[in-house]
Amino acid sequence: MAVLTEEQTMLRDMAHEWADNESPVTAFRKMRNGAPASFYDPEAWTAQAGMGWAGILVPEEQGGVGMGYLSLGLVLEQLGRNLAATPLAATATATAAILIGGSDAQKAAWLPRIASGEVVATLAIDEGPRFGGAIAAAVTGGKLSGTKQFVAEGDSAQLFIVAATDGLYLVEGDAGVTRAPRKLADSRSHAQVVFDNAPADRLEGGEDLLTQVTDRAAIGTAAEMLGMAEAAFAQTNDYLKTRVQFGQVLASFQALQHRMAKMFTELELMRSAVEAGLEAADSGRANISQEASLAKAVANETLHLVSREMIQLHGGIGMTDEHDAGFYLKRARVLEQMWGNAAWHRDRFARLNGY
Q1: Which residues contact residue 41 at a Cβ distance below 8 angstroms, ignoring those fewer than 6 apart?
Q2: Strand order of the sheet with strand 190-199?
Q3: Which of 126, 187, 241, 264 is found 20 to 30 A from 170 (Cα to Cα)?
């Protein structure tokens, strides 16, 4: 487990308390049933921004708190525990793109507005159903055209970081931008966004800017998945200690103890991999791509295991819409595909290490 500073410990505890008190799973259920156009509660987002979470990556001189990726991961983990519907992860990865590749003018124009919560930003990268495919979106005369699939928070974002054939571009979410909502299993925003001669402002940075940004997106997603996996494990463990069958609580059966023990050990490995990725992002280590692939592959496999076992060990009630178990399974399956599935990251990790 990572060694936290006093400020990071306070941030984690604050996020934990806020998520439990203000954003329990019942808040997600309410959002799901109400189906707002943004697919999140704007008031909850305003509250998160007010606590400084939107500006965790943004330097203090530009209105943020500049606490880095490990701090961001602590908050995403706590929000993930309760399936909080929030644009924080998407906005943070877009923030990372501006921090790495933005000019002074671009940073001054956008970072203070992001830190205040005024602007929801997101990445628009993939053009097909699988991450890592070819990019056809192109810019001509400062205008970007192309179609992006499964854009997280694409239904409400005011700023897009768009991948084109020659780099990443800042595109405001109005002129030349058309959104088509998608209904995926997790009831969150994954819009198809069409850019038609949309004014675009190119980010600088090297040829690997896109990779640097998507690596950080994968690590942030893994942090949210860590919180989900821990919550799913805890809820299942509590259930096994109270559910009685054949005159005994389920937790007394050795076969079930073995299944819980396997999940517990996998969770410990997952935490190590995710925290290593966050620390690699903070320190700017050269092997961040390996750390990102390791974190996302382990997160995908562990959350897949724990969410599946949550359903099976809860039995019939886990299959019902009235129980929260299904929400964890559905969100897990969507996040497993974002920024690369387990097979994609295992293959990449092997290639980067010379296998």
Answers
A1: 27, 31, 85
A2: 138-140, 143-152, 190-199, 177-180
A3: 187
